[in-house]
Structures are given as C-alpha cells and as structure tokens.
Design brief:
The protein is mainly alpha-helical. Helices cover about 55% and strands about 5% of the residues. A 3-stranded antiparallel β-sheet has the order 1-2-3, with no helix packed on it. Helix 1 crosses helix 5. The termini are far apart.
C-alpha cells in the first residue's frame, strides 16, 4: 500500500520533534505542563539553553554510557539543590519518558531505567479535620447567593465523595443525574473512561439548587461549575480557584491547619474509617484508591498506632 500516493498522503518526518510527540501522546494537561517545565530545566542544565529539536535529537543519539552519566549528573544537581524527593523523581521521569519516546520512534538506542529515583513515602500525612470543623466551614457559605450555591455544591462533593479537585473541575452538567443520584467522574488514571459514583441526598439537592438557579440544567456539555466573575464568566472553574475557595473558607472558620481540596479528601477518608470500624474494602471503594496499601496508611495514621506502641514500651521501663 503506497501511502504517499493516496488522496490524503501521510508525510513522515525523518527528524521528528520528539518533545512535541511526547506531549501529544499525553492526555493530562497537568502532565504536559510538568513535562515541558522539567525538560526545559534538564536541557538548561546540560546544554545551557532551552531544548530545540536538534538538541533533543543529539541527546537521544548518545551512547548508553554518556546518556546515563549525563542524567546522573543532573540528578546529583537536583539533590544538591535539596529539592523534595517527589520533585526529583518527577523531573527524572520526564527525561525517562523522553528517552522512551525516542526509542519508540527509532531515534534512541539506550535506556534510562537503571537510574533509580529517590525513595518517597506516599501519603505521609493523611490527617485532616473533623466533621464538626467541616460543618463550620459549610456554615460560612451564604447559600442565598448564586456563588454560595455553587460553592456549597463543590464543598459537599469534596467531603461527601472525597473527590479530587481535578475530578470536580472536569465535571460537565450532563455528568449529573439527579433522579438516579449519580455522577460520572473522570477518575485519576482512567483516561477518558468515566466512572459512576453515588451521591448523598444533600449533595443531590445542592447540585440541583445550583443548576436551577444558574439556568444550566439543559446545557449537558457545559462545565458543571463555572466562573461567575464578570472577567471570565462562564468558563470552567479551575483547580486553583477551588483551592483558594477551600483555603479561604477554612481560614475564616478558624482552622489553623493548612487546608486544600486534597486535605478535605484526607479528612473525608479518615472520617469514613472512623465510622465503618476500619473496613478497608468499603473505604477503598469510597476513596477509589487503586491500592489497598494506601487505605491501610490512612488507618495507621488514624489510629496513631506508633504512638500507642511507644506508650506501651515506655511504661515497661
């Protein structure tokens, strides 16, 4: 089959832009932004300039020894700067992904998989706030206003369903089914596959109230939560806007702990464990964590097992 002689010929670039290929192969906007930032940082360090198409090709065509030595030198530079382990690993991951894409395109013969990242303890602090404190936060919202109805619905989703802020941002009006009390969400690591979550009566009422008042019930493809300010009105509400909303209300409620949508998620999951006698399976279904070990980490922190064991052995001597 001769593709070049077809009515719509496909042109194949002998010197492709590997970074652009990598970015176009990535669905998450956050990951795209992180890749661009991290690869820029890498090439500024090793070459003193931002990555050009030719510079990337030169890097990908190094031999195994030189490529590994270069990346190890970069890793040492990151560690010396005392960056967080997760940041070091993310930047190394971007370079590894670039090399992997180069191999897929037949432009790179080496692998960087032998370069290990820094050890990171996931969910080191899963503490949050109590239901009583969260009730104070909800009570601050003026639910007679349009913005208050929107904000109340968002905060109910963050608590009642432990949604991530990205999951809230990506919601469309058509994802909500008030009659069935369900919501379709684009879960973490699910690509374009949406999953169904059941909603509480209070959350259904809050979302319904918002949709009716904002006259958005019939716009199924429109964002469920939008910007209300004159500048940008109607646009999808951003994750940063939700973070500011949560942080601001929690400070106003007198909560000293630094709060965020993810901290609300932590609070919600811990509260579920408190009220279901540590049922890991039920909690994993609620939180939608892929690994049971993560739920166990929440339970360990909730029960303060280390503190209990410390007190036991302290009393023995």
């Amino acid at each position: 089959m001769n593709l070049t002689n077809s009515p719509h010929p496909i042109t194949i670039d002998n010197d492709p832009d590997v970074i652009q290929q990598l970015l176009s192969d990535t669905r998450s906007l956050n990951t795209k932004r992180a890749y661009e930032k991290d690869m820029k940082d890498f090439f500024l360090f090793v070459a003193g300039c931002v990555p050009s198409q030719q510079l990337v090709l030169e890097f990908l065509q190094l031999d195994q020894h030189h490529a590994v030595m270069l990346v190890l030198k970069y890793k040492a530079h990151l560690v010396k700067k005392e960056l967080a382990e997760a940041t070091v690993n993310r930047r190394l991951s971007a370079i590894k992904s670039l090399a992997a894409m180069g191999r897929k395109l037949g432009l790179c013969k080496y692998t960087l998989e032998d370069i290990k990242g820094e050890k990171v303890e996931s969910y080191r602090d899963t503490s949050g706030i109590s239901p009583k404190d969260y009730a104070k936060v909800l009570a601050l919202i003026d639910r007679d206003t349009l913005s208050g109805k929107r904000d109340y619905a968002i905060l109910r989703l963050l608590w009642d369903n432990a949604l991530r802020r990205s999951e809230v941002c990506n919601l469309n009006v058509g994802d909500f089914d008030g009659q069935m009390s369900t919501l379709l969400i684009l879960g973490k690591g699910k690509g374009t596959q949406k999953v169904i979550v059941d909603l509480s009566r209070k959350t259904v009422e809050a979302i319904t109230d918002w949709l009716i008042t904002s006259h958005r019930s019939h716009f199924s493809r429109k964002p469920l939560f939008m910007v209300l300010a004159y500048n940008g009105r109607g646009k999808r509400l951003s994750g940063e806007a939700i973070r500011r909303l949560v942080n601001g209300l929690c400070k106003k409620a007198g909560i000293s702990k630094q709060m965020s949508p993810h901290r609300v998620r932590h609070s919600s999951i811990t509260t579920v464990l408190d009220n279901n006698n540590g049922n890991y399976r039920a909690t994993q279904r609620f939180s939608r964590h892929s690994k049971p070990d993560t739920v166990i980490k929440y339970d360990d922190n909730r029960q303060k097992l280390q503190k209990k064991m410390t007190d036991i052995i302290a009393d023995l001597v």
